[in-house]
Amino acid sequence: MQNTHLVILAGGVGSRLWPLSNNEHPKQFLDVLGCGKTLIQLTFERFKGIVLPENVWVATSQEYRDKVHEQLPEVPEANIIVEPCRRNTAPCICYVSWKIKKRNPRANVVVAPSDHIIVDVKAFKEAIKDCLEFAAETDAIVTLGIKPTHPETGYGYIKADLSFSSSRKRNIFRVDAFREKPNMETALEYVKQNNFLWNSGIFIWSVSTIVNAFRVYHPEISRTFEDIFSYYDDPEEQAMINERFPLCESISVDYAIMEKAEEIFVYPANFGWSDLGSWDSLRKHSNPDKYGNVAIGNDVNFYETHNTIVHTSMLNKVVVQGLDGYIVVEKDGNLLICKLSEEERIRLFH
Amino acid sequence: MQNTHLVILAGGVGSRLWPLSNNEHPKQFLDVLGCGKTLIQLTFERFKGIVLPENVWVATSQEYRDKVHEQLPEVPEANIIVEPCRRNTAPCICYVSWKIKKRNPRANVVVAPSDHIIVDVKAFKEAIKDCLEFAAETDAIVTLGIKPTHPETGYGYIKADLSFSSSRKRNIFRVDAFREKPNMETALEYVKQNNFLWNSGIFIWSVSTIVNAFRVYHPEISRTFEDIFSYYDDPEEQAMINERFPLCESISVDYAIMEKAEEIFVYPANFGWSDLGSWDSLRKHSNPDKYGNVAIGNDVNFYETHNTIVHTSMLNKVVVQGLDGYIVVEKDGNLLICKLSEEERIRLFH
Fold this sequence. Notes:
Chain A is α/β, with parallel strands linked by helices. Helix content of chain A is 28%, strand content 26%.
């Protein structure tokens, strides 16, 4: 446990779940599930017993730094990484990897988004522990793949080679290829086969493995952060980062490393996962009643209503009559009523 | 004008327009139209130039007395009649008629509900003036009848004898009969004929006519208020009323007087009227856009929406997508979304 580190990626801005989330309040900092905890708090808690609080790192922007500190007071302030600008995941992961390496060159690292939900936390913990053991013993880059429940076109897919499981862990398989978000026809094809998994964006590796991978597959980004190694945990660090970080290519770790590296493995998981990228995904993962309705908020009353999600923050009493397949969201005095089938257009509404 | 008095009936409790109106805030005290004025203020203003403020009387309950004074500061406090309990309109109208008679035995009186809307105020004023002149010159009881625009089953009807117009006013006719709220079949029949009018609940008479009518047609109620004539405008008045008023039969002036009296006349009016007894009546009378939508509130945005009324008080921004024929109302943090076709059931929802 001393050697295990967690990197929570918390720089995302949210516009899909408007008016619940917005640039000022991205969804990771909101109590999306109405459980009294924000998504980033749930992410942090999910790793209790696996990672010590002093080994938790959070990467975010200046704008959300105080929110992170407020919502995760157990995380040392020095572990909150401030990205001076948005450059996708690769530069940020490279930077924090070098910082972790400086603290503990023998560290094993989990990288996890801050705004996803996981239903079966026990199964999740087992998966993470298995992957950590595997990554510690090998030079492998491991990713969690989610067994698809439907032909989702909003996720990237991982093609696993199910004939090739690791000799050390029988439930970890070699990755054949990464596939970008498919169209519906392709997604249906993927789901028919049983070796396609959703790319969860959760990675597990040893710090030496990822640092070496950056050296090999993206030497520019690697040099940017290796060159200033001596400044880490130094008063001049942020100034150096503010100067160098913006010069990095904006690229995801998937493109920069995963799709190029050779020793990539996947753990097919089945713990109930969603990136909450849509209102309908939130509805499906929030225990809908027998009519498919979900109510998050005070005193929500349904009459002749089906497949509808109501999410309110400020309202006292809500009565919904005669809706089928709708989103009703109120946040900070903004109200959206929209068909679930049209939710892709929400960003155009605000 | 010195002899003209106005009685505004403002004791109603509202449950049909929930959550906009409720027992604490009946609709007469609310800015239902989003115009910056409450319905009772609009009622009062409609009579400017016809009635002097000191000749305006408002009948209400103890609970709403302060609201009346606050919203109509020009009305003398002594003219606010407090009914100790609800006894429908006849006892209240008899009481205030005796009080008016004490002030001015030559008064001519208009009785009007406080929670209706009138679209063409100029036409309304002309109608009222005509009726007042007629009532002053005769012993007639006059009522305003509204030319029906559709077969409404929520209103009572007046059957006019259009062959018998008054010799003094050619647009005032003798009433043949009053009819209670009809079923749809009967309403369709009424509308086909052109001598059926909606009963607006607006009455015009001289104070001596109505006082005599009570003596003849409901002597019990008449005696209740005539017997304590000497107490009116006296410190003991309210105590006397609190004792006697509750003993009155609970009966409408329509039943107690109109349906029995002989000299009843009606003025067929066409100034755009509604008792705002339903959300759909409010929608129809609030200038719907070309899709039939009405927005009352801040920053309301419609997408693919038709025949829908949005009425908000506390919300900042509202986006409504994909609704047809709905009510969306927010008031004091309560939200109702309901099909217009189901609005009869609103009282069951709260």
